[in-house]
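User: I'm designing a mutation panel for Ribulose-phosphate 3-epimerase and want to avoid disrupting the core. Could you give me a predicted structure to guide residue selection? Please restate the sequence first so the numbering is unambiguous.

Assistant: Good idea. Sequence first, for numbering, then the predicted structure tokens:
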Amino acid sequence: MYRIAPSILSANFAKLGEEITNVLDSGADIIHFDVMDNHYVPNLTIGPLVCEAIRPLTKAIIDVHLMVEPVDRIIPDFAKAGANIISFHPEASRHIDRTIGLIKEQGCKAGLVFNPATPLSYLDHVLDKLDLVLIMSVNPGFGGQAFIPEALNKLQAVRKRIDASGKDIWLEIDGGVKVDNIAEIARAGADTFVAGSAIYGAGKDSDPHRYDTIVSAMRAELAKV
Ligand SMILES: O=C(CO)[C@H](O)[C@H](O)COP(=O)(O)O
């Protein structure tokens, strides 16, 4: 099963509620919520208050990607704000196993995120405890960057490890995902596709159906895999 996860990083923040409703009405599956702290990454975005504000708008999964350091103290706030999945970077946690446990204690699913140069060895002793592995195909911090092709090798390697584990662990890709590369990314093993600029950059702001075409085009590519 493939899931399309628009990243609200590229949405029009002046109309965030509408942007979320419209993209879900267009057939997207989950909302990817990028949290940046101007410390772990050189950009600053949104926090638990915004998550809480959008929660009543939809029953869709809110998939929170924490690009913050330290990570543990903000996790309960996102859980209370209605996050369903909380993912973090191993470099941002002193105790990765403890952070995974903390996310689960709060009733959320836990994900571990790999930057382009982060080794997969961080999975060695925790894979079975994870619900999601997120492979970054750009360096984190900004939307609209080009896909780094080495991410395909990483996806293949993680796909093998997930399949060998026998667990239902989602394999998500984030960064530079477009209509013209989504099928290749799926063939490499991804099942969940974060796309920011490709989706939110589509169409005219005044058209409530502006995301239908791009989400349908992504689905059509995935149907070929
Ligand atoms: O986490 C991110 C950046 O750190 C964004 O989710 C990601 O870059 C998506 O944007 P785009 O699809 O425009 O590349």
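For picking mutation sites, this is relevant: The chain has one domain: 3-223. The chain has a mean pLDDT of 97.
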